[in-house]
């Protein structure tokens, strides 16, 4: 029970089977009180209902947590909403010890010459700027508490390598590498560590959409696409939500107290950078 008495926020954790849900359940299984945060439903073209966590789904995920918790509807593109989320964790549960920036857009994938300014802005606003808002809001409370903390971004293999049809996504995830390196320097003296976790492909609900999209782009079946993927991964399979959740739990633990400013690959050996 490494996280008994700790309060954690996980953004983008309102979809069943997603990385955020897996992270939330792992932290809760080890004693943390977890706030399930997500956008609550579609708000515009960039947030289709089948790609975001809805309010009912959020409630169901929170209800299944073993050590209690709560839900909070938050659009990470809005700094006021993000600060309200951080305040909710502090005021409702007595503090804030762990913040996981997991919310992200990975479903706007187009050839370079077809990407619009709105497409670019939507991805950067959520994946990079939203993570910055979360980092700042969490750090403000953690500094005031004076007991340190853990801030983790769910980056991606795309934080290290480029991929076709993913210009904004790759740029946003590369940006997280610079963000943690800088934030770690400033927050280290406060006992707050800041790190990225960089998984390779994980077949969540979003991952299933990506499988279908890129299989069609390559003119192969989904099974053929997945077989090619597995063949290039030394461990012989794509990632699982539990793989990412385990890395997050480690970085949140006392065992990782001297690790900060890092971008940890969780890729079965696929990503060497």
Automatic annotation (TrEMBL):
<dbReference type="InterPro" id="IPR036291">
    <property type="entry name" value="NAD(P)-bd_dom_sf"/>
</dbReference>
<keyword id="KW-0560">Oxidoreductase</keyword>
<dbReference type="Pfam" id="PF13561">
    <property type="entry name" value="adh_short_C2"/>
</dbReference>
<dbReference type="GO" id="GO:0016491">
    <property type="term" value="F:oxidoreductase activity"/>
</dbReference>
<comment type="similarity">
    <text>Belongs to the short-chain dehydrogenases/reductases (SDR) family.</text>
</comment>
<dbReference type="InterPro" id="IPR020904">
    <property type="entry name" value="Sc_DH/Rdtase_CS"/>
</dbReference>
<dbReference type="InterPro" id="IPR002347">
    <property type="entry name" value="SDR_fam"/>
</dbReference>
<protein>
    <submittedName>
        <fullName>SDR family oxidoreductase</fullName>
    </submittedName>
</protein>
């Amino acid at each position: 029970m490494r996280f008994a008495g700790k309060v954690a926020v996980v953004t983008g954790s309102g979809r069943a089977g997603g990385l955020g849900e897996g992270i939330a359940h792992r932290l809760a299984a080890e004693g943390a009180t977890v706030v399930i945060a997500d956008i609550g439903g579609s708000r515009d073209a960039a947030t289709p209902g089948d790609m975001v966590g809805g309010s009912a789904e959020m409630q169901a995920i929170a209800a299944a947590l073993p050590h209690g918790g709560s839900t909070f509807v938050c659009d990470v593109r809005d700094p006021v909403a993000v600060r309200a989320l951080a305040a909710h964790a502090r005021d409702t549960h007595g503090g804030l010890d762990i913040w996981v920036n997991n919310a992200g857009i990975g479903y706007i994938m187009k050839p370079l010459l077809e990407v619009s300014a709105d497409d670019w802005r939507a991805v950067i606003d959520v994946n990079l700027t939203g993570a910055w808002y979360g980092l700042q809001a969490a750090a403000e409370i953690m500094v005031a508490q004076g007991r340190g903390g853990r801030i983790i971004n769910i980056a991606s293999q795309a934080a290290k390598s480029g991929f076709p049809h993913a210009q904004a996504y790759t740029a946003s995830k590369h940006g997280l590498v610079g963000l943690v390196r800088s934030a770690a320097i400033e927050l280290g003296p406060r006992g707050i560590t800041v790190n990225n976790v960089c998984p390779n492909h994980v077949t969540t609900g979003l991952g299933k959409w990506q499988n279908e999209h890129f299989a069609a782009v390559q003119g192969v079946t989904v099974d053929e696409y997945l077989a090619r993927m597995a063949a290039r991964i030394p461990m012989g399979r794509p990632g699982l939500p539990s793989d990412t959740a385990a890395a997050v739990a480690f970085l949140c633990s006392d065992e990782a107290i001297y690790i900060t400013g890092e971008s940890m690959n969780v890729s079965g050996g696929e990503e060497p950078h």
